[in-house]
Automatic annotation (TrEMBL):
Location of the ABC transporter domain: 9-239
Natural source organism: freshwater metagenome
Organism classification: unclassified sequences, metagenomes, ecological metagenomes
Gene Ontology CC terms: ATP-binding cassette (ABC) transporter complex
Protein's name in the database: Unannotated protein
Gene3D superfamilies per record: 2.40.50.100, P-loop containing nucleotide triphosphate hydrolases
Length: 351
């Protein structure tokens, strides 16, 4: 239905400074043709800055932008053929939905019949085929973002840029539309940069997740790898929940965590005082000998399929979070005396 327009994107050594604030620092990222990369990081870490530079909306920066092997520094924003969707609803209020989607084609002087046909095709793609005659404000927030997506795709962009497009929507619509964007992106095959501060969203939608902190790209890898094998302590702490557990160094390759010996992650730190252990990498068992219990359960949070249990260690009163299937959590109540085991086969140390 929609012709594919697959390009590669290389951002090389981008640096952007506002006064004394460094918004992007030596930022390099390659996006393969047809790939969807999500930039993930807290507010202010430079996500929008990276996206604006790629779009040509900000030309006062260091570093290169290369599309299909060609430096596009001299190409102005309106000639870069990039489709954009932002957080705020941005439909033209006096135009119908169909006219909104056809807008970019009208600007490009595509004749009415052709552009309306194309716009209708795109509305069908985003599931709003029947809504073409309405005005923008007659749609829900989620529907408006679908129209914005259709409008961005109508011009058959080289690159699709999505800046927190789901942030203003409520949770259910957000998840639904997230899955839809993924489906549509696979269908049209447009190289896409998706910006979000929401971990789950980034993990769910992206081929690769680029984790950003303070203008720096800490790691860019498939979601599973970012989560299971974080490249840096910053990534480990930012993506997913993490316990900090005190260690004694046993050797250059192993540590003791509350008396249990665990290997150090290869390539990770060999010095440090705390191991990083995810809640699902800990298990609990009711203590057999009460006097020697290693911890006491003090809270259980039911999260549907999973239950999160917080325990307080007997020795140092440290609080740890343990996550397990809710069916397994039934045997624990607040006050249960438990033994804590580390299931992780290797750990990273906090620097
Ligand atoms: N126009 C601007 N003037 C001054 N500082 C800015 C401007 N735009 C962004 N910044 C600063 O640059 C940093 C990165 O901003 P931004 O890229 O918008 O982050 P994000 O999109 O990740 O929230 C922030 O510290 C922000 O305050
Ligand atoms: Mg932003």
């Amino acid at each position: 239905m929609i012709s594919e327009n697959r390009v590669s994107v290389e951002l090389k050594g981008l640096r952007k400074v506002y006064g004394t604030a460094v918004a992007l620092d030596n930022f390099s990222l390659d996006i393969a043709p047809g790939e969807l990369v999500a930039l993930l990081g807290p507010s202010g870490c430079g996500k929008t800055t990276a996206l604006r530079i790629l779009a040509g909306l900000d030309t006062d920066h260091e570093g290169q932008i290369i599309i299909n092997g060609k430096d596009i520094a001299s190409i102005p924003a309106n000639k870069r053929n990039m489709g954009m969707v932002f957080q705020a609803y941005s439909l033209f209020p006096t135009m119908t939905v169909l006219e909104n989607v056809a807008y970019g084609l009208r600007v490009r002087k595509v004749d009415r019949e052709k552009r309306n046909k194309k716009a209708q095709e795109l509305l069908d793609l985003v599931g709003l085929g029947e809504m073409g005659a309405r005005l923008g404000h007659q749609l829900s927030g989620g529907q408006q973002q679908r129209v914005a997506l259709a409008r961005a795709l109508a011009i058959q962009p080289n690159v699709l840029l999505l800046d927190e497009p789901l942030s203003a929507l409520d949770a259910q619509v957000r998840t639904q539309l997230r899955d839809e964007i993924k489906r549509i992106q696979i269908e049209v095959g447009t190289t896409t940069l998706f910006v979000t501060h929401d971990q789950e969203e980034a993990m769910a939608i992206a081929d690769r997740v680029g984790v950003m902190r303070h203008g720096v790209l800490e790691q860019c890898a498939p979601p599973q790898e970012v989560y299971l094998n974080p490249a840096t302590v910053k990534v480990a702490k930012f993506v997913g929940a993490m316990n900090l557990m005190p260690v004694e160094i046993l050797s250059s390759s192993s540590v003791s965590i509350y008396g249990q010996s665990v290997a150090l992650r290869e390539g990770g730190n060999v010095a440090g005082t705390m191991a990083l252990v995810r809640p699902e990498q800990l298990s609990l068992a009711l203590a057999k000998t009460q006097g020697r219990a290693s911890a006491t359960v003090f809270n259980l949070t039911f999260l549907g399929p999973l239950t999160r249990i917080s325990v307080r260690m007997t020795g140092d009163a440290r609080t740890l979070f343990v996550s397990m299937p809710s069916s397994a959590a039934l045997e624990f109540v607040a006050g249960s005396l438990v033994d804590v085991r580390v299931l992780a086969t290797s750990v990273l140390l906090d620097a």
